Amino acid sequence: MRIRIALGTGGRAGAGCRRRADSVAAHRASRRNRARSVDHEPATPARHRGPRRPWTGRRPGRHRSQDRPAWRHRARSVVAVGLAWRIGCHRRPETRAWPRHRCPRAPHQGKHDVKAQANPRATLAKILDPISIDAFLRESFGKRPLLIRGQPGKFDFLMKPSRMIFGLDKVTEIRCVFGGLKQATIGPADIREMYEAGATICVTDMQLAHRSLWTAARNVRREIGFAGRVDFRAYLSPPSSGFDFHYDARTATTLQLDGEKTWWYATSPHTLFPTENSTRTDMAAVHRAVARQTIRKVTLYPGDLLCLPPGLWHKARAGDGGSLALNMAFNHSGATVGDVLLDALKASLAGMPDAMRPFVTGAGPTGVAELEPHIATCIAALRDTLASFDGKRLAPRLASVADKAGRT
């Protein structure tokens, strides 16, 4: 494979290159004629000499570069005709990748294709296809459930099912969950035993084990300007096992990779944007709350997506062949409008000695009474800060927080 890089004409430099090229060409022609006169037969071109013998050392009469294996040969020859450089690059198949600055363009690719590769399709758009990102944010995100049917292999660009077992020593936590939401923390060596015992295996922070997921999580945050944390979790369920009713303190987007899983979920959230997950100790109270909701049932197949808002009751059970799913979680804790307002209020008190002063209450009520003037000063400062707040001032602050989160 050769790459031709066209250069501009160079005046005297170009004439010198042509003279040197002519002398080199004449020298090579004389050598070929001398070989014909000695051997009485035409010289065989190098490309038709047949397979190269294994290299066993330097052989007389051969150039050192010819003793190297073909995949290690990097010959550069400057051809002055037309002032073009030909850089000969030979590689060993499946062993040595093309250097980036020498990578040849595929025959079917044009300049428009290369430009399209520089601006690849948004990660979230590929996940939500055929739903647009704007429609997702406007109608579903954090508001109501969304079901998108897909084709098997749709999410292979994130993680193929066969890759799930790799890198589990890097994740944050691995849990096994039995009926009634009874669960325990386990290690990678315990997964097979717990799976055969009928437990669903839950792996948190899969993006720490797979770079493709880490890149996808970062891209999704940047594409929608999400100030919270996006992470991926894997759920491996044996046949006819799963979770009982519960709700999560995050927007949970299930991506079905393999097998089947049946979901039951409410049509509206029980709690709007909760800060904690539902309780696991009083399941009787959970079932009473679920009984007052309208429940829908749906079965997910490979390539399907189900997005549930936070605070929505739901449960899941794997099919007869088991199930493997990814969960793309949007964690809003610490990234709400209230959190930004609290940070702004804390910043307004940072320059006040009365607010930064540590306090002690003493042994009696007199110590508490001495704190009242300091508290009144801080409250007055907070009132002034709140009075200066308005939407036009805080909106850029929210945008900067989201932009900073998307770059991390």
UniProtKB/TrEMBL annotation:
Metal-binding among keywords: yes
Keywords: Iron, Metal-binding
Region (Disordered): 1-72
Superkingdom: Bacteria
A GO molecular-function annotation: metal ion binding
InterPro entries to which the protein is assigned, alphabetical: JmjC_dom, NO66-like
Bias kind Basic residues: ranges: 46-63
Pfam families in the record: JmjC_2
Protein name: JmjC domain-containing protein
SUPFAM superfamilies noted in UniProt: Clavaminate synthase-like
Start and end residues of each JmjC domain: 202-349
Cofactor: Fe(2+)
Coiled coil: none
